[in-house]
Amino acid sequence: MKPQVFSQTDIEILEKKSLYQGFFALEQFTFKHKLFAGGWSQPVTREVFERGHAVVVLPYDPKCDKVVLIEQVRFPALATTKSPWLMELVAGMIAPDETPEDVAHRELLEETGLTARHIHFVSSYLASPGGSTERFYFYWAEVDSSQAQGLHGLADEHEDIRLHVVDREVAYHGVVNGEIDNASTVIGLQWLQLNYQQLV
């Protein structure tokens, strides 16, 4: 017998409350859902962090086999890391009037000063579906790594960004040894390690 496949229609929202509205939002939902064994669950209440959706860009130079990483401070990381200055991929939030690809080009320029020769959509994934609606749209950008230099970021967004141009293997080693430990960068560099030979 084929297992049942559930969809959006198998959840019923009973109540929605707005708990907080600022730069981000916090909503409280009460819902019920169909059960694997049949029937419906009891009402369940969950808070959902409404952060919006984001784009992640992996700037890669296939001619030199180099990755452009950015370094910036991430205050929430202070709770669990020795240093909250993290090595990351380019990333940014999607405004209501923007497409993910528009954001990929914009953020690449703002955070690295680079313009992509080509930009390629790879995949999308949920960041933390147990508590947030946020979805990442992941691209890799073909760049000239020799042009990556200087400090970047928007002052009005309190960005202070330093660039690092590193060999692909060095970047991946940072994932393996735990020096690079933020999810979108780990996912992006693992993807690159599996696929770089097809990007030349």
Automatic annotation (TrEMBL):
**Mind naming one GO cellular-component term on file for this protein?**
cytosol
Q: Under which EC number(s) is this enzyme classified? A: 3.6.1.13
Give the cofactors, semicolon-separated. Mg(2+)
**Entry GO MF terms:** ADP-ribose diphosphatase activity; ADP-sugar diphosphatase activity; metal ion binding
Span of domain Nudix hydrolase = 50-188
Chain ranges for the short sequence motif Nudix box as given in the UniProt record? 92-114
Domain of life where this protein originates: Bacteria
Assigned keywords, A-Z: Hydrolase, Magnesium, Metal-binding
Reactions catalysed, semicolon-separated, are: ADP-D-ribose + H2O = D-ribose 5-phosphate + AMP + 2 H(+)
* Chain residues that bind Mg(2+): 91, 107, 111, 159
Q: Which GO terms describe its biological process?
A: nucleoside phosphate metabolic process; ribose phosphate metabolic process
Q: Which family does it belong to?
A: Belongs to the Nudix hydrolase family. NudF subfamily.
Question: What is the purpose of this protein?
Answer: Acts on ADP-mannose and ADP-glucose as well as ADP-ribose. Prevents glycogen biosynthesis. The reaction catalyzed by this enzyme is a limiting step of the gluconeogenic process.
Which PANTHER family is this protein grouped with? ADP-RIBOSE PYROPHOSPHATASE, UDP/ADP-SUGAR PYROPHOSPHATASE
Q: What's the name of the protein?
A: ADP-ribose pyrophosphatase
Native species: Shewanella xiamenensis
Gene name as annotated: nudF
